[in-house]
Amino acid sequence: MANRPYIVGNWKMNGTRAMLSEARAIDRGAARHPAVRVAIAPPFTLVHAMAEDATAIAVGGQDCHASPSGAFTGDVSAPLLKDAGAQFVIVGHSERRALHGETDAAVRAKAEAALEAGLEVIVCVGETEAQRDAGQAEAVVAAQLEGSLPRGETAAQGVTVAYEPVWAIGTGRVPSVDDVGAMHRSIRAVLGAIYGEAGAEVAILYGGSVNAANASELLCADEVGGALVGGASLTAESFLTIVAAAGPLGD
Ligand code: PGA
Fold it and tell me: Helix 236-250 vs helix 20-31: angle between axes, to the nearest 10 degrees?
């Protein structure tokens, strides 16, 4: 793994203020693993409080609007996240794509808005089970990357890609290490085509049912630069085991 491994917790729609103590425990634990970059994306309601507390972890949003401000009831923009203390935002998660009808173009607009606001951005891609069964996984992911990644001179410096097969999210099923490696190599090639030499520096995270038991193996797959973790990021105990598993890869 060329760069510092990056372990990101996606809390999804979970976390009342009582969960801030769990985030503090994660923060303290992360401080013991300086070779690993650790981050949490809590619900919007906790971003500010968590960011105020954090010393070792980065805090981010799970989505943002493509416009900086305006009449968009219920939405949160990238500058508002930045103002609340966020350092990054996740865009294009498969739950947003499937449940909110987000297209590649919409995801790209959000990613560019995030960079414009001074946030780093994690762009999610991943195939469905039917697409994998049809032998289209790499083509589908390549097309998502083409359509969703932000463009611009310095875009590559602010971008992380998360490969999350839709069928592996929250299911307990994970692809084989060989399949993860093959997909990550294919993503690396697309990043090179889009960003040129800078594409080699973009971290590619694996996500989908990463847990304390399988993290070491998945993190060792080819071109895997870290993990995007849902369910197993909700307790300090399981999340810090994953952080610890990434430790030796960053030394
Ligand atoms: P999971 O979720 O780890 O619970 O499968 C991952 C994600 O959706 O980011």
Answer: 20
User: How far is the C-alpha of 2 from the C-alpha of 35, rounded, in Å?
Assistant: 12
CATH number for the domain formed by residue range(s) 6-249:
3.20.20.70
Percent helix / strand / coil, the chain, rounded to 5:
50, 15, 35
Task: Give the model confidence (pLDDT) of 60-78 as tens digits.
Answer: 999 999 999 999 999 999 9
Looking at residue 205, its amino acid is: L
Q: How far apart are CA 181 and CA 72, in angstroms?
A: 40
Q: Is 10's C-beta closer than 6 angstroms to any atom of ligand 1?
A: yes
Distance CA 169, CA 30 (A): 24
- Under the banding of pLDDT at 50, 70 and 90, the label for residue 251 is low
Residue nearest atom 6 of ligand 1, based on CA coordinates: 230
Do residues 5 and 225 lie in contact, with contact meaning Cβ atoms separated by under 8 Å? yes
42 lines ligand 1 (CB under 6 A): no
Backbone torsions φ then ψ of 3, nearest 5 degrees = -105, 175
Number of Cβ within 10 Å of residue 170's Cβ equals: 13
Q: Whose CA is nearest to atom 1 of ligand 1?
A: 230
User: pTM for the full model?
Assistant: 0.98
| Three-state DSSP state, 8 | strand
The CA 228 to ligand 1 mean position distance, Å, reads: 7
Q: Which residues pair with 204 in a beta bridge?
A: 161
